[in-house]
Design brief:
alpha/beta, Rossmann fold, two-stranded antiparallel ribbon, 5 helices
C-alpha cells in the first residue's frame, strides 16, 4: 500500500493513462470533475461507466477491457462492496496501480491487487494528493 508522500508523488509522476471507474457527467459527482481535473493536468483519461457514452467531452467506456490503450492507473469511484470485479479487470489488464478514492475502503480487494503486483492507494483523493504533491 502506497502511503508516503514520496511514494504517491512517484506514482503520479510515472503514470500517463488513467481509467476513472464510476465517472459521471453529473456536476455534483466528484468522479466527473476529477476526470476533467486529471485530463487538464496532462494525463490521458478514460472515463468508465456503462451508463454513459461521454463524460465532460471524453468518450466513456462501459468497462476497463473496452479501453483501446494500456492503462497505467485505475482510479475507482465505486461502492467498496462492488470493486472486486474492477480489481479483477485491472489485474487482467496488467495495470500498474489502482487508486481507491476517498471513502472507498476494501482491504481484501486492495490486498488482492497487491498480491497480483499492482501498487495500491486506498481511501485518498487523487486530486487532493496531486494538488499537495505535484
Amino acid at each position: 500500500m502506497l502511503t508516503t508522500n514520496e511514494e504517491l508523488k512517484k506514482l503520479l509522476s510515472e503514470v500517463k493513462t488513467i481509467a476513472v471507474v464510476g465517472a459521471s457527467p453529473k456536476p455534483w459527482r466528484d468522479s466527473g470533475s476529477i476526470s476533467n481535473f486529471l485530463s487538464k493536468r496532462g494525463y490521458t483519461v478514460f472515463p468508465v461507466n456503462p451508463k454513459y457514452t461521454e463524460v465532460h467531452g471524453m468518450k466513456c467506456y462501459p468497462d476497463l477491457k473496452s479501453i483501446p490503450e494500456k492503462i497505467d492507473l485505475v482510479d475507482i469511484f465505486r461502492d467498496p462492496r462492488e470493486i472486486d470485479a474492477v480489481i479483477d479487470e485491472a489485474i487482467a489488464l496488467n495495470a500498474k496501480a489502482v487508486w481507491l478514492q476517498l471513502g472507498v475502503v476494501n482491504p481484501q480487494a486492495a490486498q488482492k491487487a497487491e498480491n497480483a503486483g499492482l501498487q495500491v492507494v486506498m481511501d485518498r483523493c487523487i486530486a487532493i494528493e496531486y494538488r499537495a504533491l505535484m
